[in-house]
Write a structure and sequence with these properties.
mainly alpha, single chain, flat
Length: 71
Amino acid sequence: MKTTRRLSSGALAVAVLLGLGGCSGMSARDRDTAIGAGVGAVGGSALTGGSATGTVGGAVVGGYIGHELRK
């Protein structure tokens, strides 16, 4: 159990670092859109109990809000 948790934590850390590295060439507006989509997806998933529709809907709404934030 501890080995699986340690492996999962390491994989998550690598994924986060790679994701942050991929954002280095983005404009501020693109970054806000991506962050909004991520936060919206997590929120939509949490509110709907992990429903795929809720997750995608949350990502769409969050991405739109993030995109329009700096207008």
